[in-house]
Write a structure and sequence with these properties.
The protein has 611 residues and is an alpha+beta fold. It has helices spanning 2-30, 36-48, 53-83, 86-109, 119-136, 147-168, 180-187, 189-200, 203-209, 219-240, 244-260, 266-285, 297-319, 325-340, 351-371, 403-413, 435-443, 510-522, 543-550, and strands at residues 110-111, 174-178, 290-293, 383-390, 417-424, 446-453, 457-463, 468-474, 487-493, 496-502, 530-535, 554-555, 577-582, 584-591, 602-608. It has two domains: 2-371, Growth Hormone, Chain: A, CATH 1.20.1250; 383-608, 4-Layer Sandwich (Deoxyribonuclease I, Chain A), CATH 3.60.10. It has a six-stranded mixed β-sheet with strand order 6-7-5-4-15-14, with helices on one face. A six-stranded mixed β-sheet has the order 8-9-10-11-13-12, with helices on one face.
Length: 611
């Protein structure tokens, strides 16, 4: 049983990696080029091809079908890790998603004389290991880590996956089929993954819901420790044979409600209950007895419907600006399916396995928390270096994850105050990395964060000096999905007021940006030196920028040598990123020549003018 559980656990980790790469590459490469509905249709078709497992099963039989799907999952993931090219990654990850979603159904449906499904153990174990890996790699997915480390790790995992698969499938296998209630549980497996990926096992989400992560600190690491405690409780509960179905449903319901209420401290603690419930439910949903049958069609259909629900929920959540309604529906479905699961005995977890997972999911996140650098702020000075950078959600000009390159680029310029736009902190469609937490830790800077879309996307100010008098302002939202919610964040550094913002991106929305600038300026008292750093999405002669300069702000880039084009970084043809200031004198400005993001950064040295 250990071999089959290991085989299934590694396969599920590969599938999660494929889903992350596919959704992020699809979003990064085609967002803005195709309508959201078209992107959703591409994703819907890709995940819908999981239903072709019926054909794979009928043509190849149990053993060969599972082996074929496993190879078709593992090989593309290895190639993705090694190649890292946008369009190749999109194609390879789509193949891996199709193969992986088929493999899950096939490995569950294929039964031997002494072999049940490995998923009741493998699914919660995979969720636990995924948390451990994200903690160990500071939220960077293994497949996106530095190639000298990532390629050997993924290759070894692939070889172990295929080797354990060969060892796990020696006996005579037949197809099996669930009852109607069992099929309901299988259909809820993919929605459970969605709930886990978008909140239930997301450390950044739990921390921000609990009041952490807006004003500095290792919030994501704290959230991961809390989630790890929840997983540990769930794993031990599975080993001790608690009444799993009501326990899972109750923990999910209570944890989710309290998490999304955003109550300081309480919502963070609720993350542990949520994580425990999802861990138990992951075992419950895949534990229904199945009877021998000629075809795997019902198992495939149940999982296939679940994957379609997964992508539908993800599309609604992200296309509608982090709408929580889709997550509430998915969470309710998972809790109900766990409660209605057939009353069959769960595979009893061995205490050694449960306690090993419990120790890992607490110890590794705790170590990550302890090793997170504590920023050492210093007294502000009259002269300092400021930088504005649209970090493209942690992806480079070729839409490949680039947190290390971003950190190196910023570190090389050595800003004292840094404004970031397009900061994402754990979105499924952005590889689930925490851009702000990672960069703040690498740069040794404190920060303030302004979420503008949901809790995990927005703008940030980072500083080597203390940040005080923090204020967040939401701009009026234009109706329709064409316009994103946007805002500005204000903080004081010494005697200088610093404002960071990201104005509307639509080319024909000058009037919208003008209203956003008016909202920004209304919040300034007009006293003392002030800096406005922004991705303004407007050319220098735009009326919305004239509104800023007519208010007394100078274009510091033009006055310091940083007046060049900033977008795109690999083909700079327009200037849309700016630093404006009043009460300061600029010097030694530059446009940073780097493709670590799709924008170039703007850097200016400023000195507070004598009164």
């Amino acid at each position: 049983m250990f071999g089959t559980a290991l085989f299934a656990t590694i396969g599920l980790l590969f599938l999660l990696s494929a889903i992350h790469v596919f959704t992020s590459t699809l979003y990064q490469s085609l967002f803005g080029k195709l309508p959201n509905t078209t992107l959703g249709a591409i994703a819907f078709v890709t995940f819908g091809l999981s239903l072709l497992a019926i054909v794979t099963a009928s043509r190849l039989g149990p053993r060969r079908a599972v082996a074929f799907a496993a190879a078709a999952l593992a090989v593309p993931v290895v190639l993705i890790t090694a190649i890292r090219q946008e369009w190749i990654d999109l194609v390879l990850s789509a193949i891996a998603v199709v193969a992986g979603t088929q493999w899950v159904a096939l490995v569950h449906a294929a039964r031997g004389t002494v072999r049940g499904s490995p998923l009741p153990v493998a699914l919660p174990a995979a969720l636990a290991v995924d948390l451990v890996l994200r903690s160990a790699f500071a939220t960077i997915p293994v497949v996106a880590a530095a190639p000298p480390l990532a390629v050997p790790l993924v290759l070894i995992a692939a070889l172990l996956f295929l080797a354990t698969g060969i060892g796990a499938l020696p006996d005579m296998l037949t197809w099996s089929s669930p009852t109607a209630r069992g099929a309901l549980g299988l259909a809820a497996v993919a929605p459970l993954v969605l709930v886990a990926e978008t909140g239930g096992l997301d450390g950044a989400q739990a921390a921000i819901a609990g009041g952490l992560g807006l004003d500095g600190g290792p919030s994501t690491q704290i959230g991961m420790v809390v989630m790890g405690i929840g997983i540990a409780v769930g794993a031990v509960a599975l080993a001790r044979g608690v009444p799993a179905r009501p326990a899972a449903a109750a923990a999910i319901a209570v944890g989710a409600i309290l998490l999304w209420l955003h109550v300081p401290v309480l919502s963070l603690a609720a993350g542990a209950a949520f994580a425990a419930g999802l861990t138990i439910a992951a075992s419950v949903l895949a534990s229904a007895p199945q009877s021998e049958t000629r075809s795997a069609w019902l198992t495939v259909l149940a999982f296939g419907v679940g994957w379609l629900l997964f992508i539908a929920g993800a599309f609604v959540h992200y296309a509608y600006f982090a709408s929580r309604e889709a997550l509430w529906v998915a969470t309710a479905f998972v809790a109900l399916a766990a409660l209605l699961a057939p009353p069959s005995p769960l595979p009893r977890w061995r205490p050694l396995l449960a306690w090993s997972i419990a120790v890992l999911v607490v110890l590794v996140p705790a170590a990550g928390l302890l090793l997170t650098p504590v920023p050492a702020t210093r007294a502000s000075e009259l002269s300092f270096r400021v930088m504005t950078y649209n970090v493209h959600q942690g992806f480079d000009a070729g839409d490949i994850p680039s947190l290390d390159r971003l950190a190196d680029t910023i570190s090389h310029e050595g800003p004292d105050v840094l404004v970031l736009e397009e900061v994402v902190r754990g979105w499924l469609i952005d590889d689930r990395h925490d851009v702000l937490g990672y960069l703040a830790g690498r740069l040794g800077m404190t920060y303030v964060f302004d979420p503008t879309i949901g809790d995990l996307y927005g703008n940030a100010i980072l500083s080597k000096y203390p940040l005080t008098d923090v204020k967040r302002v939401a701009y009026p939202k234009e109706p329709g999905l064409r316009y994103q919610p946007r805002g500005a964040i204000y903080a004081t550094v010494g005697t200088v007021r610093v404002v960071g913002t990201h104005l509307d991106e639509n080319a024909d929305a000058s009037a919208v940006r003008t209203e956003q600038v008016r909202a920004l300026l209304r919040e300034l008292d007009g006293k003392g030196p002030t800096l406005i750093l922004c991705d303004c999405n407007a050319k220098p002669d735009a009326p919305e920028l004239k509104l800023i300069t007519d208010s007394g702000f100078g274009d510091l880039g033009l006055g310091s040598g940083a007046g060049g084009n900033t977008f795109s970084s690999d083909d700079p043809h327009e200037r849309i990123d700016y630093i404006f200031g009043t009460g300061v004198t600029p010097a030694r400005g530059l446009i940073v020549d780097s493709t670590a993001s799709d924008h170039k950064a703007v850097v200016v040295n400023v000195t507070v003018s004598a009164r």
